[in-house]
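FIELD: query
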Amino acid sequence: MHLRTILPLFLLTAVVLSACGQKPIHDTTEKANTHQEDLSSAKAAETGSTETLKGKYKIEGTENTFYVVEDDKLSLVESGTYSFPADGSVEIQYGNNSPVTYAIEENEKGFNLTVKEDSILLPLEYMEGDDGLNKGKPFHGVYGVVNGGPGYVFYKDGMIDVVTTHEATLTKDSISFGGLEYKWKAKKGKILFYDKGDKKQKTPAITMVPA
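FIELD: result
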């Protein structure tokens, strides 16, 4: 074999080996977080009361989302499924909603999940468990939104839980959390949330039932 043939083969082999051993760009160290703890606590919460605002509720007519209300905290848990339809992308679906396919883009912080045509950007960083978001197969790991926010818990069976925890201020007739404020009242086995400015309270903004 001539030298001019050997040299390109050598260079090709070097490139392949380099790609196989390429180190991740993002931070792969585990980080202190409470996402799993918040999720476990929310799932273990008692069924919501129909007389006062406390416990676990779901929005009437939905099955994949529930809220947990405590004296100083409100947690929201949304469950769904995920898959990897192609290299460099992940598809997430919540309940009966249409699935959304995100492009996965690695950066120094973690991963940007993007849907460019809809101007959606979801910046995630690795927290704990398997760091498998760019591996193309189901895994069990936790990611969090960069700079604080919801926690994304991925499971090996293709399920996903998204948990968001807000500090809350609860009174006998109002609740505020995450920059939102509602008036609330118990009526006929349901908890009704009304927009703060809705003085007539004819149409609730949110109707919750015990879960």
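FIELD: remark
The chain has one domain: 35-210.
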